[in-house]
Write a structure and sequence with these properties.
mainly alpha; 24 helices; Serine Threonine Protein Phosphatase 5, Tetratricopeptide repeat; elongated
Length: 450
């Protein structure tokens, strides 16, 4: 009996120990979570060690901790922890394998490209060995194949997903374009369009990559009207997206050329298309050419004249267009109108060195020239582009008018090194050297100016 009586306390003690361990593990788990969320990583590591001493499976907690470390900027320690959870040589904690693959593909783990691809392939193999499947895994495998230049295999792998997964359709369309398989690429493009039109109908948010893929799909399908609509929606949603702006600029330029070649061009449409091309960052050289063409035809064409008037009066003209209009107006001999336009240009974009220089030139040509303001303007241009011979030539001409001969010579000599055939610069140097009493140099430059 005494021996039997002793079994009850011992059994009760064992049961109490099991309950105590479970309760303690939960307490430590909460402590790890609280320390992690407060950023107290020293305390967090203490309770992680306590959990490990209890023999508790802490994979989920360890993963959350590593992920939080990454989000807090400690990617190196996060990667070390993830590798403990998921080694490339054997199946481990699946979310950790996924995390490593995704970060390798984003080039965030400081691995060389070849090593990054090798490791990603090994982690994908471990997920497959663990029978972890699904669209996300297939997409990652396709991405790995693309990186390994196995494009036909990637295209085949994605095909079953393209009707269900918009991302798969977009990726496969890009792959087939790269392979030169336009028939399959166009087929993918129709599916991409269907997916994204459905997203638009449901008013679901889209990112820049999705808009880019949609625009590419419409371009492949040759639907200019739909392409324009997609680009405009993209530009409205992401006004600073360079690709969207470039696409809209190309559309505006094409529509401008179409209007210019029409039997009866509409001056208002010409002006509108030029403004749009400027707003969307069209090539400044091409834009300058079209504006110059209008000015060249102004005296012979009422359409060109009307389009120019609309441009000059527009409140929507962006800085680059104001600069081009001001420059052409100055060339046409109207410094008053030119200075007003160029002043608006530099007020709206103080980084445009050409606008500052040409503003200075317009001020110099006013009936009552404000040479001090002109000097201030051209000096702003030189700050922005210190090696421009044209800007130094402008300042040299200004200094010449202010009779500041040594400074004028310094700028004009800088300019003539970059523009050796510039007769106005040679004439200005002849004047400056003559004023300084250096007649031989004056004569030499005067001869070069003839």
């Amino acid at each position: 009996m005494p021996a039997l009586a002793l079994l009850v306390p011992v059994g009760a003690a064992a049961a109490w120990g099991m309950l105590w361990d479970g309760s303690l593990a939960r307490t430590y788990g909460v402590a790890v979570r609280d320390a992690r969320e407060s950023g107290d990583y020293e305390r967090m590591r203490l309770f992680e060690r306590k959990l490990a001493q209890l023999g508790v499976n802490t994979q989920h907690i360890d993963f959350q901790t590593a992920d939080r470390l990454a989000k807090d900027g400690n990617l190196a320690e996060a990667y070390v922890r993830m590798r403990r959870l998921a080694r490339p040589e054997q199946p481990g904690y699946p979310p950790a394998h996924l995390w490593i693959i995704q970060h390798l593909f984003r080039n965030e783990l400081k691995e060389a490209p070849a090593e990054s691809n090798r490791l990603a392939g090994m982690h994908l193999d471990q997920l497959e060995a663990a029978r972890i499947r699904g669209p996300q895994i297939t997409m990652l495998r396709a991405e790995w194949m693309i990186r390994m230049q196995r494009l036909p295999e990637a295209s085949a792998l994605l095909e079953p997903l393209i009707h269900r997964e918009p991302a798969a359709a977009m990726q496969r369309m890009a792959i087939n374009m790269q392979l030169g398989d336009l028939a399959d690429a166009k087929s993918d493009a129709r599916i991409v369009r269907d997916h994204l039109e459905d997203r638009q109908r449901r008013k679901s948010a889209m990112n820049g990559y999705e808009y880019q893929s949609w625009a590419l799909a419409e371009q492949l399908l040759g639907d200019d009207r739909s392409l324009t609509a997609v680009l405009k929606a993209w530009g409205e949603e992401f006004p600073d997206d360079l690709l969207a702006r470039q696409g809209l600029g190309q559309i505006a330029r094409r529509e401008l050329d179409s209007e210019l070649q029409a039997d009866r061009p509409d001056p208002s449409q010409i002006a509108r298309r030029i403004i749009e091309a400027a707003q969307f960052g069209n090539d400044p050289a091409e834009l300058s050419e079209r504006v110059a063409m209008l000015f060249a035809e102004r005296d012979q064409s009422t359409i060109a004249q009307a389009a120019i008037e609309e441009l000059l009066q527009s409140a929507d003209a962006p800085p680059i267009l104001l600069q081009l209009l001001g420059t052409q107006t100055l060339v046409a001999g109207d410094p008053i109108e030119a200075s007003a336009l160029l002043k608006r240009a530099v007020e709206q974009d103080s980084r445009d060195a050409v606008a500052w220089n040409n503003y200075a030139c317009s001020l110099m040509r006013l009936p009552e020239a404000d040479l001090d303001e002109a000097l201030s303007a051209v000096e702003q241009a030189i700050v922005l582009a210190p090696n421009s011979p044209q800007f130094h030539e402008t300042r040299g001409q200004l200094l010449l008018r202010l009779e500041r001969w040594p400074q004028a010579v310094e700028d004009l000599e800088f300019a003539i090194n970059g523009m050796p055939d510039s007769k106005p610069t040679h004439r200005a140097l002849a004047t400056a050297y003559a004023a300084l009493g250096q007649q031989q140099l004056a004569a030499a430059h005067l001869q070069s100016a003839e």
